Amino acid sequence: MKRRDFITLCWISLATSMFFFFVFTDEKTVQNFMLTIVISFMYSFILWTGNALINDFLNKKFPWSEATTKRAILSIISILIANVIMVYFCNYMNFVVFQKSATTEEYFSGKYNFTNWFTINIALLISAFLHAKGFMEELKKTSKKEVVEQKLIAKSANAQFESLKNQLDPHFLFNSLNVLSSLIDENPKQAQKFTASMSKIYRYVLEQKDKELVTVEDELEFAKTYCELLKTRFEDSVDFVFDVKAENYRKLVVPLSLQLLLENCIKHNFATSSKPLVIKIFSENDTLCIENNLQVREQIKESSGIGLSNIVQRYALLTKRNVFIEKSEDYFKVKLPILSAKPQEINIKIDDENKAYERAQKRVKELKSFYGNLISYCIVIPALIIINLITSPDDIWFYWPMLGWGIGIAAHGMNVFAIGKSWEEKKIREILEKHHKF
């Protein structure tokens, strides 16, 4: 038990003992006052601590967030059994041991059945309050944990995506300058032409690198320009074949993916006029394929691994569809998923997530409303019972508000825990299905 809860329980016990001493005790003596305090503390600590221990044990073994239905059933069974045992023990200690107003035989003969029943109801109210309090605390912890986890995931994904995009600038520039350096010695005129083309291509790199997706058409136009650049250097040693269906032009791919894969083809394969490297770019079953005949060259230095791994990781952050790689003795092929979702549809998905969060907030408010109602019941009804027994013990009227409000709470609980809502949703689905049939 926490120190704050212990202090609160002490004050409640002291207030209860003073109330019973001044209202129900005939002989106002120090001995009776001390006895009342002992009895009050006994009831408070046994009933409160017992129910708190049961609640803590169930929280550890069967958390509300993981097994709600199972936890609810176990809570009901455990608190009923435990509270009956604790109440019979406390009343036995009170009437038989401390006050000596009854013998053990008289106590178990049924003389104190009403007292036991009344005390059990009070204990059940205390237990309901504790379980409601525990549920709300766990709900808050779970909500905070989920919010923190989602923020961390979003930040991590965003940082990872930015890091991957930032690899493109230096990677492209480094490779292009290497090509230009080779051309300056081999063919100065071609080097001038290459420089002019490179400036156009680099402009596209700067424009598109910060985008998550670009159209297949834009990426193909860029790839064709880049292929002309490569053709300037390799001439007849490299051939390019484009065969992409027009129906895929408005669909989406990761930007600069073709450029990175074309670089890989040149980098890892030798190309001569007698054995030209043939690179094919075509569409196949909702994928954009880049295939080349395999003419593996010996690597002088270890590959940086930026190209293909960059594409795979960027696709992984945007879609569940995978980048497929096929390799045989004759060819090497990479299949890029072609995505049909437009940026507007991505925003719709984000809106749907926001709506889901709003629904979750509404659900939390409904739960808080129910448990607020339950806690109020646990406080007000015992107060009404005490007032009734003090003012008119011969005229028992507290049953009516207890039953009426109790039925209201039961109906509220059925509605909040989707017993009523599931029936409503089922009827709505049935009506909609009939409507669609006609």
TrEMBL record:
Annotated coiled-coil segments of the chain:
none
Q: Where is the 2TM domain?
A: 358-432
Q: Which residues form the Signal transduction histidine kinase internal region domain?
A: 159-237
Which residues are listed as membrane-spanning?
7-24, 30-51, 72-94, 114-132, 370-391, 397-419
GO MF: phosphorelay sensor kinase activity
Domain of life the protein comes from: Bacteria
User: Which InterPro entries did the record assign?
Assistant: 2TM_dom, Bact_2-comp_sensor_kinase, MFS_trans_sf, Sig_transdc_His_kin_internal
Q: Name one Pfam family in it.
A: His_kinase
Name a GO CC annotation attached to this entry: membrane
- State the UniProt keywords alphabetically: Kinase, Membrane, Transferase, Transmembrane, Transmembrane helix
PANTHER family, sorted: SENSOR HISTIDINE KINASE YPDA (PTHR34220:SF7)
Protein name stated in the entry: Histidine kinase
